[in-house]
Specification:
Length: about 80
């Protein structure tokens, strides 16, 4: 159990960096026009394929793992 407590902060840092990179690498369908209200309605009909789908799923997995590791850190801190 002591090993988990020692490794957990480093795992959270790695998961946080991977999550940030996965989110930043994703392309958004809306450009500046979409941000200002001038986007067309066709941007809502977008299907993720290939690497974009991988990044989307990878970011979800990283977010869940990061949240679970933070919860585990809280539980372990309270018990020690």
């Amino acid at each position: 159990m002591n090993l988990v407590i020692q490794i957990l902060p480093y795992a959270e840092i790695v998961l946080g960096v991977l999550l940030i990179l996965a989110i930043l690498l994703q392309q958004t369908g809306a450009g500046v026009g979409g941000a200002l209200g001038g986007g067309d309605s066709a941007s809502f009909q977008h299907t993720r394929r290939g690497f974009e789908k991988f990044l989307f799923i990878f970011s979800i997995v990283c977010a869940v793992l990061f949240a679970l590791s933070a919860l585990l850190a809280i539980i372990l801190k309270a018990n020690s």
